[in-house]
């Protein structure tokens, strides 16, 4: 199980790119953290997510 924004997903080992596609999140304006550490966008295709990992995906919001 991989936790994405607090919800469990039954994935084996996948890249962050694959995970984003699988959960259907729009890529524009998002940031991703794996186990509390930010993963830079250029690393998404090479960063593997494994069972037990905690993924947080946040979207930038404009406003003031």
Q: Explain this structure to me?
A:
This protein has one helix at residues 16-23; strands at residues 2-4, 7-9, 14-15, 30-34, 37-39, 48-49, 54-59. It is mainly beta. The protein has one domain (2-59): Ubiquitin-like (UB roll) (Roll). It has a five-stranded mixed β-sheet, with no helix packed on it. Strand 1 (2-4) and strand 2 (7-9) form a beta hairpin. The protein is globular and about 40 Å long. The protein starts with a strand and ends in a 5-residue tail after the last strand.
Please give the structural blueprint.
Elements: E1 2-4, E2 7-9, E3 14-15, H1 16-23, E4 30-34, E5 37-39, E6 48-49, E7 54-59
Parallel strand pairs: 1-7
Antiparallel strand pairs: 1-2, 3-6, 4-5, 4-7
Note the main sheet: 5 strands, mixed
CATH architecture: Roll
List low-confidence stretches. none
What value does the average pLDDT take? 92
Key structural traits:
64 residues, mainly beta, Ubiquitin-like (UB roll), 5-stranded mixed β-sheet, globular
